Amino acid sequence: MADALEVRQVSLRFGGVKALTDVSFSIRKGELFSIIGPNGAGKTSMINCISGRYRPTEGQVLFEGRDITRATPNLRPKLGIGRTFQNLALFHHMSVLDNVMVGRHHLLRNNFLTGSLYWLPGVRSEELEHRRRVEEIIDFLDLQAYRKATAGTLSYGLRKRVELARAMALEPRLILLDEPMAGMNLEEKEDMARYIVDLNEEFGMTVVMIEHDMGVVMDISHRVMVLDFGRRIALGLPEEVLADPHVRKAYLGEEDEPEEVAPALVRAAS
């Protein structure tokens, strides 16, 4: 069985600046995989290479065995890749329901001519099915009370949840989450962590997550990869990564750490 995602020796340069250097890894289907590292380590650059926002200078990106290195960003949702953004990318003037419906756009089978003829049985049936799926996602993320609210009027934490809902509406097999808990309070983080675990386990989505809250990363991830200055310095189970001396040095800047390094590392990365 092919991996959900395989990244082969990917490098990314912007002029003379190297954002990524010879990074390789693979992600199994159904895995919750986190990418961590200090600020500027290349985490978002890697997500952008996977989503198609950036094209690697060198190397390959394969999704379910298919080379998508040169596939356009618009094609990747159709292939089964969805994402959220570090900075919110909602339509703030639209309702929560309409924002989530936007995520269904690439799944529409009817064209703009038949779409205008709502009374046709096939068109009406398709519209109802899309709305049913959207309502299921809104229920799953506990957004029922806000479904008609204008997205721009919601709290930051709720807007992050709406963006996750829109990404889920794509029905991706692989979902890329770029700092889904950034700017949230403790209660909001706990809720978001639960939603991410549930969409991985109940919806069967393979998850790739960038997150600075090390406690959450270590609690919910199956495996963790660490980047530093655009290079992979560690990959493994959460407890293995925490114990890796290269990771401790990247976060704490010291060669030899005391026995209590794990809690210190968590605090440094939070």
TrEMBL record:
The keyword Ribosomal protein does not apply. The keyword Transport applies. Keywords: ATP-binding, Nucleotide-binding, Transport. InterPro entries: AAA+_ATPase, ABC_AA/LPS_Transport, ABC_transporter-like_ATP-bd, BCA_ABC_TP_C, P-loop_NTPase. It comes from the Bacteria. GO terms for cellular component: plasma membrane. Gene3D superfamilies: P-loop containing nucleotide triphosphate hydrolases. One of its GO terms (molecular function) is ATP binding. Residues 5-254 form the ABC transporter domain. SMART domains: AAA (SM00382). This is ABC transporter ATP-binding protein.
